Amino acid sequence: MNAAVIVFPGSNRERDVAAALKAGSGKTPAMVWHAETELPDGTDLVVLPGGFSYGDYLRCGAIAARAPIMDAVRAHAARGGHVLGICNGFQILVESGLLPGILTRNKGLRFVCKTQHLKVERADTRFTSGYKPGQVIEVICAHGEGNYFADPETIARIEGEGLVAFRYCDAAGNLGGFANANGSINDIAGVYSEQLNVLGMMPHPENLIDAAVGGVDGLAMFAGLAKAA
């Protein structure tokens, strides 16, 4: 698998993602600066990492969505190439029109940083081939504006077409309540594009890839991506 990690001013998880991609695939990804206009030849997967691109000015991800490299990312997705946006990367994807909905301030108006359980909604995509449907996994949450929202028609379409990737839950898989720390509608933690080749998610799977630092549930995503390439 040939992966490319896009680096914006203010990104701070690009090295974490690069380490996760190498752990899952055995290959070091290309690091692509936001001012570039083309992706490396043969790119299979583009990753937009977490952080605070452009200082979160205007809206989180709004300026990054208009960076020169994003035209190439949109073209890659249009050709069926895979794109993964994590945290700020998810915000960039919705701002760029590659995914529906918006991400607003957390319901408690506070930054949330904690271990988080997620329920895997489907395992028949390249992103989730390393999991089982309904499996509960552990990841890390670290965001202040991760409250996913969309209008009722969009939510009905997302739910009806099976485009919810993950939902916030507790360790037993129960939804709602304190398990949903940011207030996202329908406990949505991640969504797919209609073609299932673009995934945006707020939690960080790349931060749980080593048992020595808390767990390995995130590694299955990156290993699955490599295996399905």
TrEMBL record:
It is found in: Cytoplasm. The active site is at 87 (nucleophile), 204, 206. Keywords: ATP-binding, Cytoplasm, Glutamine amidotransferase, Hydrolase, Ligase, Nucleotide-binding, Purine biosynthesis. The keyword Nucleotide-binding applies. Pathway: Purine metabolism; IMP biosynthesis via de novo pathway; 5-amino-1-(5-phospho-D-ribosyl)imidazole from N(2)-formyl-N(1)-(5-phospho-D-ribosyl)glycinamide: step 1/2. PROSITE patterns: GATASE_TYPE_1. Its EC number is 6.3.5.3, 3.5.1.2. GO terms for biological process: 'de novo' IMP biosynthetic process. Gene3D superfamilies: 3.40.50.880. It catalyses: L-glutamine + H2O = L-glutamate + NH4(+); N(2)-formyl-N(1)-(5-phospho-beta-D-ribosyl)glycinamide + L-glutamine + ATP + H2O = 2-formamido-N(1)-(5-O-phospho-beta-D-ribosyl)acetamidine + L-glutamate + ADP + phosphate + H(+). InterPro entries: Class_I_gatase-like, PRibForGlyAmidine_synth_PurQ. GO terms for cellular component: cytoplasm. GO terms for molecular function: ATP binding; glutaminase activity; phosphoribosylformylglycinamidine synthase activity. Part of the phosphoribosylformylglycinamidine synthase complex involved in the purines biosynthetic pathway. Catalyzes the ATP-dependent conversion of formylglycinamide ribonucleotide (FGAR) and glutamine to yield formylglycinamidine ribonucleotide (FGAM) and glutamate. The FGAM synthase complex is composed of three subunits. PurQ produces an ammonia molecule by converting glutamine to glutamate. PurL transfers the ammonia molecule to FGAR to form FGAM in an ATP-dependent manner. Part of the FGAM synthase complex composed of 1 PurL, 1 PurQ and 2 PurS subunits. This is Phosphoribosylformylglycinamidine synthase subunit PurQ. It comes from Methylopila turkensis.
